[in-house]
C-alpha cells in the first residue's frame, strides 16, 4: 500500500467510527482470520488515555495497524525501536502520531512548570519530554494546554525521523509521517498540517 492510501484508509476508518457504522468488530473470528500473518498499513503512536483506543477510533481490524502507546505519546528508545521494526520488518508505509484534546500528560506538564513541582522518577521523564512543547507556547497563554498538545504532536512527528532508515524512506516516498489530533467529544481525527 502507498503511504497516501494508508492515510486515506485511516481517515476513512475514523469516519466510519464517527458515523456509528464501523466495519470491524473485535471478535475472535476476525482474530483467527488474521492469524496466519500480518501486513499492517500503519504504525500509530498514541497516548495511553483510556478514552483513545486506536483500533476503535480508526475502525481497524486485527492485523491492520501496529499500535504504540505511552503517556502523552512520549518517545523513548523502545518507541523508536518499535517504529523502526514496524517500518523495516513489517513494511508499514505510514507512521501516524496521534495526540488528543485534554491530554492529562500535557496538563500535568503545564502544572509542573507552573508550580515548579516536577514529579519524581519516570513520570518526571514524561514531563521533561513534553516541557519543550509547553515552553514553546508559554505559560502566559490562556490556551497553553491545547496549543502545547498540538506542538507536542508536531515535535513527536519530528522525532520519528530519528528512527533508523525513516528519513531515506520518506525521501523515497515509500513511508510518510503524519500528525493528527483526536477530539474526545466528537470522535473525529483531524490531521495537523
Ligand atoms: Zn493523553
General description of the model:
The chain is of the alpha/beta class and 193 residues long. The chain has two domains: 1-36, no CATH class; 39-191, Carbonic anhydrase (Beta-carbonic Anhydrase, Chain A, 3-Layer(aba) Sandwich), CATH 3.40.1050. 47% of the residues lie in helices and 15% in strands. It has helices at 3-19, 28-33, 54-57, 77-88, 104-115, 121-137, 144-159, 166-172; strands at 42-47, 65-70, 94-100, 176-182, 189-191. Strands 2-1-3-4-5 form a five-stranded mixed β-sheet, with helices on both faces. Strand 4 (176-182) and strand 5 (189-191) form a beta hairpin. The longest helix is centred in the N-terminal third of the chain and has 17 residues, at 3-19. The radius of gyration is 17 Å and the shape is globular. The protein starts with a helix and ends with a strand. Bound molecules: zinc ion. Zinc ion binds next to helix 5. GO terms for molecular function: carbonate dehydratase activity; zinc ion binding. This is Carbonic anhydrase. Zn(2+) binds at residues 47, 49, 100, 103.
Amino acid at each position: 500500500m502507498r503511504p497516501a492510501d494508508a492515510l486515506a484508509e485511516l481517515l476513512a476508518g475514523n469516519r466510519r467510527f464517527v458515523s456509528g457504522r464501523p466495519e470491524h468488530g473485535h471478535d475472535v473470528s476476525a482474530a483467527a482470520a488474521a492469524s496466519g500473518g500480518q501486513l499492517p498499513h500503519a504504525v500509530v503512536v498514541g497516548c495511553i488515555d483510556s478514552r483513545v483506543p486506536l483500533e476503535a477510533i480508526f475502525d481497524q481490524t486485527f492485523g491492520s495497524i501496529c499500535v504504540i502507546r505511552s503517556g502523552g505519546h512520549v518517545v523513548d528508545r523502545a518507541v523508536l525501536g518499535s517504529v523502526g521494526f514496524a517500518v523495516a520488518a513489517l513494511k508499514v508505509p505510514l507512521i501516524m502520531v496521534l495526540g488528543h484534546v485534554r491530554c492529562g500528560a500535557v496538563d500535568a506538564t503545564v502544572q509542573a512548570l507552573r508550580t515548579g513541582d516536577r514529579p519524581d522518577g519516570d513520570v518526571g521523564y514524561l514531563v521533561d519530554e513534553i516541557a519543550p512543547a509547553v515552553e514553546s507556547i508559554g505559560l502566559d497563554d490562556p490556551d497553553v494546554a491545547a496549543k502545547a498538545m498540538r506542538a507536542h504532536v508536531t515535535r513527536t512527528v519530528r522525532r520519528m525521523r530519528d528512527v533508523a532508515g525513516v528519513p531515506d524512506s520518506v525521501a523515497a516516498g515509500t513511508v510518510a509521517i503524519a500528525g493528527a489530533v483526536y477530539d474526545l467529544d466528537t470522535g473525529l481525527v483531524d490531521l495537523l498540517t
